[in-house]
Protein: Urea ABC transporter, ATPase protein UrtD
Amino acid sequence: MDSILQIDNLTVSFDGFKAVNKVNTGIEKGEIRFFIGPNGAGKTTLLDAICGRVKPQSGQVMFFDVDVTRYSEHEIVNIGIGRKFQVPSVFTNMTVYENMELAVVKDRSLYSSMFHSLKKEQIERIEDILVTIGLYEKRFNTPIALSHGEKQWLEIGMLLAQEPKLMLLDEPVAGMGRAETDKTGELLKKIAQDCTIIVVEHDMEFVRDYASKVTVLHEGAILDEGSVYDVQNNQKVIDVYLGR
Ligand code: ADP
Structure:
């Protein structure tokens, strides 16, 4: 298997406090990797370090064969790593379709001039993604008319429009009911055929159903890593997280 992301000895400190402490892990192509652990374990900070939001004190992040450790957020997006935050940030004064148009035009300063002249392949890409995320029928609605889950899927679609090779998702099913959660899981499975995914998640049922592999963080360090079965039977993981 090819490792597309390699994290070596990564440490991120805030005023001397190590939020991420000597983390080593490799993410294989096509994985749906879950980062789990108690609040304050360092999950979000690890995502922030991968996407260039925070700069590590030491260690390295390799994406394919490129050292992206010191890349800016903008450079990280351009190299093919997309990040979705917990709260959906879609444009509510535009339709679903227009949100997708905006996402597909990578240089947003060109958006107004390109608005009515997207290339054929860009239009096809938008339509394919709308079908994938289940919002094709609602493409002329504004996001105000969408459910919480549908807004999250739109935002995932907007990420997909940028053709990432790796997608970072922060609690994508928070606030969803079971039906929307399962639809999100099926969506992630489809996406993972072309784009590797890392998910920070608390919903253990979701993790059990959809994880290829799980990384358990505790106090900034990796406590365990492996299959869902392995980590949920590890007594240390039960003690600090699952048994609570
Ligand atoms: P998790 O996502 O697992 O809940 P976080 O990565 O958000 O954990 O936080 C890990 C630790 O780092 C926490 O103790 C948090 O308070 C601290 N932390 C996170 N971001 C900052 C920051 N910008 N400044 C200072 N401390 C921070």
